[in-house]
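Support request, priority: normal
Reporter: lab tech (M.K.)
Component: structure prediction queue

Hi team, I submitted a job for ANTAR domain-containing protein from Streptomyces ziwulingensis yesterday, and the status page still shows it as pending. I've pasted the exact input below so you can check whether something in the sequence is tripping the parser. The sequence length should be 243 residues. Please let me know if I need to resubmit or if it's stuck on your end.
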Amino acid sequence: MTASDFTDVPRLSADAELAEALTAAARKLHDTVTPHGTLRTAVQLAVDLLPGAELAGISVIDRGSRRETLAWTDEVVRSAETDPRAGGRESHPLWDRLWTVPVAKLEDSIAENDGPLSELGLRSALSLRLRADRRRLTVLTAYARKPRAFDEDATRVGRLLTAHVSMALDSATVREQLTEAMRTRDLIGQATGILMERLDMDAAGAFESLVKASQRENVKLRDLARRIVGTHDAPQGRGVNER
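Reply from support: The job had stalled in the queue. We restarted it manually and it finished. Here are the results:
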């Protein structure tokens, strides 16, 4: 994904109202069809829209300091957000704060003695909370190579953007779950049809046989259905044929 993919998203300037820019951003976000696509779009929009932002990333953090970078605009962001052992530090300099507050800012990594970020050439950062519960935190962080890059305007725009990202992410997640549910239903229907033919029984009996085999083998129903559909041309084994 490159900046050219976002040419229809106006940059914040004297000629582009914030509302117009965020409306265009919201359209971009809601046009994505998967959560991963939403996250990739979000980090590029952060660079395009937040005053001072040069790079951006989205990471998820567990309470136990385990973390994973989900989307990034540059490999240097991935380096900054992925390795919890960098410089002996167990967590990103801003993320611990986001369990209790929605925004955290690093003015100057050198002045604030943050070796890992300064070694990567990242002087300032603005972290914004996307999602949080008791055990997991999802964070969007914008970075700049100069100190004190993020002012109050950047914070305000960032909070508005993360609100749109959060809504779009929820929407994409629901769409993905519904799509998966429909695929699972179709898969189970195919498996039931195969068993009806193999075992010479009606739909209710075939489905009951499928459920019993799933419980007996301690296998999820959809995984067993996928196995049956994938091997329905092979010679019959035991498995679901045993009643």
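The first strand starts at residue 55 and ends at 62. The chain has two domains: 3-173, 177-241. Let us know if anything else looks off. Ticket resolved.
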